[in-house]
Design a protein that fits this description.
Blueprint (H helix, E strand, L loop, with lengths): L3 E6 L7 H15 L3 E6 L14 H4 L8 H9 L3 E7 L7 H9 L12 E8 L8 H11 L6 E9 L11 H12 L2
Parallel strand pairs: 1-2, 1-3, 3-4, 4-5
Helix pairs in contact: 1-6
Length: 180
C-alpha cells in the first residue's frame, strides 16, 4: 500500500551532500510506488518559536511565516525523512528550528509513524551522528505513535556534491527509500 512520504532537507548549501542523499531516498520511495513530497528548508521563511504555547490551544502557530503550511505537510505524512548536515556534531540549526516550530502538532492528531534521519559530515567516525539522532529522538518521544525507523549516516564528505562519489552510500539511501 503506498505511503505518503515527506522528505525534509535542512541544508542551506547549494550542492548539499545531505540533500543528495535525500534525493536518492526520494528515488527509491518513488520506485517503490509511494507518494513523495520533497521539502527544502533553504528557500523557506522559518522564524524561531516564541514559546507562547498558543498553538497548544489552537493547533496553529501565531507566527505568520512558511511553517504553518509545512506543519500541515508533516501532520498528513505517513513517513518523515529528515536530512541534515552535521555541524559541530549536531543537527543543523534549520532542522532544530523546524522541529521546534512543529509544536502545534503536539497533543493533536498526526499520521506519521516512521521517522528516518539522514546525516552527512566531514568526520567519518561511526558515532558522529549520535547527537543528531538523540536530538531527533527527543522530538519523536513527544509523538507516542511514532518511532525512529532508521538512520543513515554518511561521513567523510565535506565539499559540495562530494557524496556523489560515494556509490555505496548512495545505494544505501536508495534502498532506504525503496524499503520504506
Amino acid at each position: 500500500m503506498p505511503k505518503k512520504v515527506l522528505i525534509i532537507s535542512s541544508s542551506l548549501r547549494q550542492g548539499s551532500n545531505s540533500e543528495i542523499l535525500a534525493r536518492e531516498v526520494e528515488k527509491g520511495a518513488l520506485n517503490a510506488g509511494h507518494n513523495v513530497e520533497f521539502l527544502c528548508l533553504k528557500d523557506k521563511n522559518i522564524q524561531f518559536c516564541r514559546g507562547c504555547l498558543a498553538c497548544q490551544k489552537t493547533q496553529k502557530c501565531v507566527i505568520r511565516d512558511d511553517m504553518n503550511e509545512m506543519i500541515g505537510q508533516v501532520k498528513n505524512a505517513d513517513v518523515l525523512v529528515f536530512a541534515t548536515p552535521v555541524y559541530y556534531y549536531e543537527m543543523s540549526g534549520q532542522m532544530k528550528t523546524f522541529l521546534d516550530r512543529c509544536n502545534p502538532l503536539y497533543g493533536g492528531e498526526y499520521r506519521f509513524r516512521d521517522v528516518y534521519l539522514l546525516t552527512t559530515s566531514y568526520d567519518d567516525s561511526p558515532d558522529v551522528s549520535e547527537r543528531s539522532t538523540s536530538g531527533l529522538e527527543g522530538w519523536i518521544v513527544c509523538f507516542d505513535k511514532s518511532h525512529l525507523a532508521g538512520v543513515l549516516s554518511g561521513g567523510g564528505v565535506n565539499d559540495p556534491k562530494e557524496v556523489s562519489n560515494h556509490r555505496e552510500l548512495l545505494d544505501k539511501a536508495y534502498q532506504l527509500g525503496k524499503n520504506i
